[in-house]
Amino acid sequence: MDSASGSATVVASDHEAAGLAAHLLDRHRRLPCVVVTTSSGRSVPAIDAGDIAADVEGLAEVYVLPTGAPSWEFSRHLPEGTQVYGGAARVYPVGIAWTANRELSPLRFVFSETDAERVATELVSDALTMAHAAGILQARGSTTRQASGTVKGMVGGRALVDVAGGGWFPAVVWPELTAKDVPAERLFVTGMTVSGVLDETLNRLDVSGMKSVAGEVLSPYRAGSMVLGRVASVERERVKVELLPGFAVTVQAVDVTGDAGSDLRSLLTAGETVTAVVVRNGASTARDWRLRVTEPEDESHVLPAASVLPGGPPWLLLPRPEPAEPEETSGDEAPAVLPTPAAATTGAPEPVPGVAPEVVAGLTQEIADLRAMVARLQQANDQAERRQGALKTELRKSQDRARRAERELHEQRATLGQITDTLFADPEEQFRFDVYLAWARRTTAQDKLEHPMADYRLGPEFLATLEAVQGVDRSKVVDVAADVVSGRVHSVAARQTHQLRSGSGGDDPFVVGASGATCWRVSLQHKTAQARRMHYWHHPDGSIELSSIRLHDDFRP
């Protein structure tokens, strides 16, 4: 293999391509590997591999793989879905877990020349994040020393530090070597003091040794505190929420939706910032914590997120609504201007021995058209993923609002019940008022027209038996009474309404009053020892008389 600009290595032959594949599959490989490929018809990649090599020097290896015979040989030796060719690039972490989980080695596409700089930045970030995860903090052979200094600002996603006793140029701090997926502006503020190991060869300052201890910076999070967290991963029945990078608390579905059977994958997205209530503070061990993911009623009650570095800013901020996506244009409007595919900017295609020039030109143009199509699809997919994430968040918020409203309604009903319990000195007047209130509350406007309250009276033993027969809530008796006097009781299966017999036998006669009234029995409880029942009379004139509250085996009217 030949060295390119910087310290990138060009894979020049099929043999070298096979060797590179074998190197990637070596589970003892020490450094992540960046593989940048060329587009068809190009001799150099659109991405500047030399710049990448300079940025990741000592922490990752960089290779340039020409598309063609070497790339096909390279692909032949790798598991399906882990290859790279055609102008794309990817970083392979140390180890071989990426062979089974392609998400560990994300594929980066260059659809146009203008994409190259963005993709180069992503590749550097991927490589440094993987190096940090592998514990690679300094390049071999570098001259290092302990150093401290003041953050002067952030440029290009990096922090610049004036190091005491340093040279003319400020040292650079790469956030990827400090915390995974945390931007520089959430780690540093201008003027803060930082210290760590300075790689004098590369002028790179490693401040990872400054990272806050979770048990200390999370100590203000008490039971009942509303805090911020980041979704680290989502499974069907559980989600991991980071209170600090790498400090992830497992939250079960019941503590997100209230339902242990919920599928959290439809509600949460990895990387999303959420709010949660601390149920239990587990000190320094994440598995001893318990959180309940919920939306805040008042954002001012949400505690600021902890700082990853002492003196730094909160590492998370309250999520804000995403700006609305521009509406798609109709077919009559001018289409959006698409970037020129990188493959189409190379001039005349290189001749291929034995193939007519017009065939090569046609295939080259077809490749360019396909790349443009992929660019459109990628753009549409990115928009769809953003919309999906926003919809998941809104769905979760809606469910949370619904649960809160239901809880408030229950509390209001309980309060109303306490208020109305003592409105009347006469127990019968109080009971009648409660029944009317239950009927009004538990029926819609249309139901009230279809099931109006019938004339009814209380039998001489009703209130006495209500008081004497314990073990059933008065509110349940009131609700059932409201169903009885409105006639709805026969349409509610759980009420199990039937005529009362004089005994437990199926042949025992029905209980009938002297006036021809029929006595009915309705369930107040189910699957309970001596379950409580309500007995009532239905008189020939259509009126109702609530007769008594009895135990299951008591057949007295």
Task: Explain what you see.
Mean pLDDT is 84; it is low at 327-346. Strands 1-2-4-3-5-6 form a 6-stranded mixed beta sheet, covered by helices on one side. Strands 9-8-7-10-11 form a 5-stranded antiparallel beta sheet, with no helix packed on it. A 5-stranded antiparallel beta sheet has the order 14-13-12-15-16. The termini are far apart. With 557 residues, the protein is an alpha+beta fold. 29% of the residues lie in helices and 20% in strands. The protein contains 11 helices and 21 strands. Helix 2 runs parallel beside helix 4.
Per-chain topology:
Blueprint: E1 2-3, E2 9-10, H1 14-24, E3 33-37, H2 49-55, E4 61-65, H3 69-76, E5 89-92, E6 107-108, H4 115-133, E7 144-155, E8 158-163, E9 171-173, E10 193-199, E11 204-206, H5 214-217, E12 226-234, E13 238-244, E14 247-252, H6 254-257, E15 273-280, E16 290-293, H7 357-420, H8 427-442, H9 445-450, E17 456-458, H10 462-468, H11 474-486, E18 498-499, E19 518-523, E20 533-538, E21 544-550
Parallel strand pairs: 2-4, 3-4, 17-21
Antiparallel strand pairs: 1-2, 3-5, 5-6, 7-8, 7-10, 8-9, 10-11, 12-13, 12-15, 13-14, 15-16, 18-19, 19-20, 20-21
Helix pairs in contact: 1-3, 2-4, 8-11
